[in-house]
Structures
1.
Amino acid sequence: MKKLLVTGGAGFIGANFVHYWMAKYSADKVVVLDALTYAGNIANLDSVKDDANFTFAHGNICDQALIETLLVEHGIDTLVHFAAESHVDRSITGPDAFIETNIIGTYSLLKAAKKVWLDGKSILAGHRFHHVSTDEVYGTLSPTDPAFTEDTAYAPNSPYSASKAASDHLVRAYHHTYGLQVTTSNCSNNYGPYHFPEKLTPLVMTNILHNKSLPIYGDGMQIRDWLYVEDHAYGIDLVLNKGRVGENYNIGGNNEWANINIVNKICQLMNQAFADNSGLAQRYPEALAAISGKAESLITYVKDRAGHDRRYAIDATKTRDELGYEPRESFETGIARTIDWYLNNQRWWASVMDGSYQECVHQQYDK
Ligand code: NAD
Ligand code: TYD
């Protein structure tokens, strides 16, 4: 039985990981630590909040004393670190929060873990610090370059990826220098339920439902490798249970799409959903383009993102060969599940988009 501290567990991937973990390992204790920034939503944890094995702690990963208290009081042996500022566009307009949370926050977690697990009277055997990172640390590829392996040199290009790269290096150093038992996973772009609608795939889905334009940066030919979020949770599960301490593992979907093509694909699936279910036009009367089978007419090319990476691609051979990892969801089924989730969870994304999801944060946590 493990006792997990999951940082950033109220965000997109963290919440999906908590759902996955508590369904699979129901005897494990899970403590979520989350600052509930704009990207964190306590409602993402509604389905587990009454479970006796679940605890929510509202706080910041930069607060080393709080982390130490949580590690000691809950007897934590496994820390899974998702908390981060995660949106590249925001890192371009306001890098400070990325440096603070992604670098200083990770450093604070490492210091707390070292102090509690290594520096006490006895070392906690079997502890694990798992750091969740991104393929963006490897930089950008041309269309013909081989995919990123774990040995690809880091070459981050955005303030976001640079801050994640810095945190990866700190995690590595804490293993090499102090013997902290760490693992790191570098994953490609995720999609799925609870994805904040500032990111490409949920933005396209929710904009179609509001008949708003679908912004394509530059020529739309930038390539990303898309992975269903539950498969990311599954990959982390394998790294935690079978991964070698001190190692990095790439997790990807073998599923490269140019942005314009994935947006067109989502448009076609939304058109089809409206054609198959006449009730959707009543529920979403604003969605005029999708109702008339032409969601793609909303596509609008806009100015490119500064420093926009052209292509990311993951070679996950090591993770497959060592851990037996293969994504379990196909893109067809994963994207269909995701569209279905957004069509059936209007309350969730409407409250995220109008900001009302933050009201309970202010009511419960503001002094
Ligand atoms: P997200 O932005 O949806 O969620 C981040 C969560 O962290 C939120 O709940 C937020 O409240 C919390 N948080 C932010 N700052 C905090 C702080 N200082 N203290 C405590 N909590 C804080 O992000 P996500 O998309 O779920 O990404 C999770 C992790 O996975 C990140 O580390 C990200 O770099 C990595 N990652 C994301 C993707 C992707 O496609 N989204 C791909 C690969 C790796
Ligand atoms: P995003 O979801 O922000 O993820 P990341 O930048 O971490 O890969 O963006 C995915 C791709 O989609 C990226 O190449 C930028 C592009 N994009 C658009 O073309 N339009 C948009 O409105 C957004 C948010 C992203």
Note: DSSP finds 14 helices and twelve strands in the chain.
2.
Amino acid sequence: RWHPRDALFAPLIGSDGGLLGVLSVDDPEDGMLPSRERTAMLEAFAVQASIAVEHARAHQSLAESEALLHQMFEEAPVAKCLLDPDGVIVRVNRSFCEFFGRGPDELIGLPAIELADPDDREVARSLKGQAYGGKIVRGVERRYIRADGETRYGRLSLIPIEHASGRAVLFAVVDTTHEREAQAQLQHLALHDALTSLPNRNLIADRLEQALSRSAREGGRVGVLVIDLDHFKLVNDSYGHPVGDQLLVSVAESLTGVLRGADTAGRLGGDEFIVVCEGVEDLQELELIADRLRAAIRVPVTLGDVTLCPSASVGATLSFDGASADELVAQADMALYRAKGQGRGRFEVFDEDMRSGSMQQLEVRAELDQALRRDEFRLHYQPILDVATSRPIGYEALLRWEHPQRGLLYPGDFLDVLTDSELETPVTRWVLRRACADLRSFGDGERLFVSVNLSPRQLTRDGLSADVQAALADASVDPDQLWLEITEHDILDVRHRSSLQSLQDLGCRIALDDFGTGYSGLTYLQQLPADVVKIDRGFVARLATDRVSAGIVAAVTDLAELLELTVVAEGVETEEQLEMLRAMGVGYVQGFLFARPQPAPAAAAAIAGYGP
Ligand code: C2E
Ligand code: CA
Ligand code: CA
């Protein structure tokens, strides 16, 4: 109960002069006015109460902000720890424990320096020195080793904290491992081919430069080999790009599988690969390397339900004093171009003649257009002989281009350009007519044949059958007097097979050219509509020196006999080769030993003089 006369009120005033509250006291003796002493005592008490209230409030907000700070430290996404004046960890947060993969009990008490990667300790020590010297260290990226041995990257800050007991340091790390990985991945992507993961053109150029400067310092030469898959486009066209891609991946693996320590393989793009070899002695060694690479590629690969046996052409060059990377790659490229012009699956080393050849190549496309109109194409004929009688049984027609300025050009100089252009069809038509017409001038009374080469695109072209029939009819040549040669490489799918079949149905003879270098292999021989197998001249060339080649020739001959196919060995250059072929039972031969390809009259005359 309050009595208006004996109630006392005193304001509680804060240190800033604001009102904290009111102290009120009711004297127990009702109706008594408080004495002066009493009022003074109450006023003194009010002052003390104000101080107490203010204190209590301050304490509460301190506790609250301390809890907040603790939470902010503990739950921060940034790894943080506090180091005592000696650099020993005294407090860690959750992120810190996660970053290092250790619990608080393992970390507290540990000198922070022990968390740095051993290779990084010197730098870490100097940074620590700066922080303890009062300087803020920020944004330095360092490597750390977790308890599980995993390497982490973190951007570190060291913040000196002044303390009554000395200088402490707040140590914070932002995990940059993912950033690093992304960067590394970007860098990898920029320098590697996405499909095969091999170094790309840029990285290879770099490695080649390095190899060249090493060879300038330490001696030894650098070999550059450019490798191109034969008929890769055909694989893509026939089986689709996924199969083509898989083939490239598998070839990349085959290549890297046979590299020596100091070699680098890369992908230049498309189906072109490159290998850089250091410490190559001479051309012989370069050739050995090329052989090894080609052998590695020539293993059958099964992709889904197709089995392919890829082969490759290789062009190579050796470094010389002052050679630049670009120059060497260009040289190897020119050699590759020549290798492909010689038929597929071959190897060529750069020589200076190729330079002028390839300069001219650029002009070919422009001039080819007029070649047919100006009647500049020629056919040269090379006889195919019966081993038993040494007499020709027929002639292979080989295309030449009588260039008004450059003289006689060979297929290697223009065929690639031609078969890529719309001129190919009229030229094929011309070849068929010319060959059939020329056949009439060969052999008096003997029934000879003429053999014409066809590209895979021509083989599947709609009008081909009609062109063949027209050429035969115009020259009054029987269908069985026309052989059609198609490179074994080029027969890949049912489309090609059915085209062969329909030509065979016309009565023409189908010859599988360059046999042994292609995708099909021996087992396919019986599935193909073919009459003749022409054993690739590469095997013939190696007959005397390489037992595998000799074995392949013998096996093909045996199988062909079983399947009642005619066997022709191409590229016979020596008597020794001829004798070996004869011993193996090869029935027919063709090559420089007997005659080079020549114009029709000369070809006929040359053979009249050859014989036992
Ligand atoms: P191929 O069908 O394998 O023709 C045989 C090639 O080997 C010819 O080269 C011939 O000159 C060469 N040769 C013949 N005997 C020997 C020998 O004993 N030793 C060596 N080292 N080589 C020999 P050529 O005339 O330069 O023809 C190259 C290729 O061009 C031919 O290879 C053929 O695939 C292609 N070709 C030629 N004419 C035509 C054509 O009219 N149409 C198409 N599509 N391709 C053609
Ligand atoms: Ca041929
Ligand atoms: Ca051939």
Note: The longest strand covers residues 151-163.
